[in-house]
Amino acid sequence: MVVLVMTKSENRVYHISDAVTFQKNNEPFGELSNMATDFPIVVNDIYIPTNEGLYQACKYPDFPEHQKAIIDQKSPMGAKFAARKFSNKVRADWSNVKVDVMRWCLRVKMVQHWDKFSKVLLSTEQKTIVEVSKIDMFWAAKLQENGSLYGKNVLGRLLMELREMITREGKEMFLSIDPLPIEKFFLYNEQIRTVFPIVNNLEDVNIINGNLPLTPPDQLTLPF
Q1: Closest-CA residue to 53 (of 33, 38, 37, 73)
Q2: What separation in angstroms does the CA of 199 have from each of 61, 113, 175, 213, 223?
Q3: CATH fold for the domain made of 11-194
Q4: With 70 as the cut, is the pLDDT of residue 201 above it?
Q5: Where residue 203 falls among pLDDT bands split at 50, 70, 90?
Q6: b/e per residue, 11-32, with b = 16+ CB within 10 A?
Q7: pTM value?
């Protein structure tokens, strides 16, 4: 695994006229945000309402109770705020692995929501993708007085990387996604397993305490 290390020198200037930008879920390209609400995830047969919840839970592999408190949140912002309560328990190497965890979360989102997520990502064509934020200059870029955007825009860059992959490789590349080869990549005290696509089939749903039953890897089912 190649760890992408971000340095101060990697802040970049982006021009809105040349870019696809996103900020709020209910605005154009809001589906690209990790705060998008219509992309629930199933990992290790655990139903996770939001991709942000999955990302935040990965901060606490040694604390399944904290992971559950995060995953139980129905909204992405709720998951983010819940995670902040345990900030003193974040895995020690988080600053080194968080970009790869986000990259993995985006690929999980693609595997389990290929039709919708690939469509919106490919609709950006070959334009630069930039997340706009009022404060975050790591994952996003901040609007400047001269009308440009400035920041590392790591999420936007990961999305462009993903767009290149689906353009070059197509759906065959996203029939499954293996867990990251990092230490303690756990969810509820279990090693995270390979993630497969899901299908929506109400008749097959059998949820017990928020978990989904074990099903064949190509027939995982969401509860709606």
Answers
A1: 73
A2: 28, 9, 13, 14, 10
A3: Tetracycline Repressor; domain 2 (1.10.357)
A4: no
A5: very low
A6: ebebeeeebbbbbebeeebbbb
A7: 0.86
